Amino acid sequence: MSNSMKSFSMALQKTLRGQASSDVLAAKAARAAKVKRMWKSALEACAGPAAAVILDHTNSIYIIRKAEEETDVSRETSERDETSRTSQAAARSTGGAFIRRKPPAGELIVYVEDSLIAAEVDARREMIKLKFLELFGEEIDEFRIRVSRGKYKLSHPYREEAEKTAAQEKATRVALSEARIAQIDEELSTIPDKKVREALKRAMISDLEVKNAAAAKKGDNGAL
Prior knowledge:
By secondary structure, this protein is mainly alpha-helical. Helices cover about 60% and strands about 10% of the residues. It has a three-stranded mixed sheet with strand order 1-2-3. The protein is globular and about 75 Å long.
């Protein structure tokens, strides 16, 4: 092989490796974003108003599948090739219906800011696992709840997202009356922990302010 052909071959291989690596990184980023959305949806489905508090104090969330722990570029390529080779056979074996391969069960790991929030999550452990399966087809084999340490406590992805959304919606909010705020205080007075109580109050006020704004747009004068 001539030097020019060798150079071209090496350049091509380098480009392909770079593209494969980029594809893997993009896939991981997309998966991380999906897991983040699933955690939010699962909490909102089973924790009610407390979901806002838990999300506010969530530092990070992961789903790790044992079969994926050693994933690399060559394996990704191999799996795609294997899927391509077996798809027709799978369709024939079911009379034309394609069998969707069930993803392996995963390990759900959530890091939260303190032990109080960890206890709130733990109380809903089985329900959260059920919601992951019901809503997204994600089977959770193990669920680990951990309290963050050091600089990791400073990460609040859902809080930052909520603050950004609140800033965008600020102009479309209608403040609650003092009487309604007093009513919320009374409704939450049975919650002993001040931190949880205040977080729930903020979440409820924010939700009602948005609803008031929506009602105002529709011409409904029945402010909450």
